[in-house]
Amino acid sequence: MFRQEKVSLAPFTWDQAQQYLDWVNQEEVAHWLTRALPVTPFEHQRWYESLILRSDAVVFSVLNNQDGAYLGNVWLWGVHSLHRSAELRILLGPQAKGKGFGTDAVRGLLRFAFQDLNLNKVYLYVLANNVAAVKTFEKAGFVKEGTLRQEFFVAGKYQDAYRMAAHRG
Ligand SMILES: CC(C)(COP(=O)(O)OP(=O)(O)OC[C@H]1O[C@@H](n2cnc3c(N)ncnc32)[C@H](O)[C@@H]1OP(=O)(O)O)[C@@H](O)C(=O)NCCC(=O)NCCS
After folding, report:
1. Residues 6 or more apart in contact with residue 156 via CB below 8 angstroms
2. How far apart are alpha carbons 16 and 167 in whole angstroms?
3. Which domains, from first to last, does the chain contain?
4. Ligand 1 atom 10: the closest Cα is on which residue?
5. Residue to mutate, 97, 124, 127, ligand 1, most ligand atoms under 8 Å from C-beta
6. 29-61 tens-digit pLDDT
7. Mind listing the pLDDT tens digit for each residue in 94-113?
8. 27: burial class by Cβ within 10 Å (0-12, 13-18, 19+)?
9. Which of 12, 64, 114, 152 is within CB 3.0–4.6 Å of 34 for a Cys-Cys bond?
């Protein structure tokens, strides 16, 4: 367990994954994750198993330090053994948004990535109009590396995305 100021990063349990499935099928959440199709329970179980078991992924639950409540997840994907890089993904439940938990969770994951996993670079992809996410990532130390024009087809139109990154040095 990794304790930050507002949240702690803890193992992602199967019970928590049931709550995650509910969130990911909500329209607004699916939108920001650039998903078009609903997730079935079977698909969700396969996703959970592969995320937990993959050697190139590390997933954490985000818990509220005040009451231990499960707020969402933050994880690293595609950890590369040579380049020492990985992709960050994050999802907080709708109730948890806008209270500083996201910034604290991203900072915690970066600390883990650089100090414990010996990574050199953490990158991510975010819709350019996801104002809350872009601001959260910038507050946590990410900078924009470039704009990917019409990268994702979301809500009936092609939308730009930013690639952002944070480095250890
Ligand atoms: C994106 C996400 C991780 C942000 O976490 P959060 O806890 O809501 O964000 P924070 O409370 O830490 O806010 C960080 C900054 O963004 C600002 N912000 C938050 N929501 C905002 C909004 N809707 N519009 C503008 N700014 C916003 C905050 O004011 C804060 O800046 P400040 O400290 O200068 O005031 C979270 O909302 C989430 O999981 N969203 C759904 C999934 C998603 O979009 N994931 C990213 C896909 S790449």
Report:
1. none
2. 30
3. 2-120 (3.40.630.30)
4. 100
5. 97
6. 999 999 999 999 999 999 999 999 999 999 999
7. 999 999 999 999 999 999 99
8. exposed
9. 152
Residue type, 136: T
Round to the nearest angstrom and report the end-to-end CA distance of the chain: 25
Q: Which atom of ligand 1 is nearest to the CA of 127?
A: 48
Strand positions, DSSP E, 19-110:
57-64, 70-77, 85-92
Q: Does pTM surpass 0.90?
A: yes
Mutating to test ligand 1, I would choose from 33, 70, 92, 151 the residue with most ligand atoms within 8 A of its C-beta, which is 92
Give me ligand 1 centre to Cα 42, in Å: 30
132 lines ligand 1 (CB under 6 A): yes
Query: Is the separation of the CB atoms in 128 and 149 below 8 Å?
Result: no
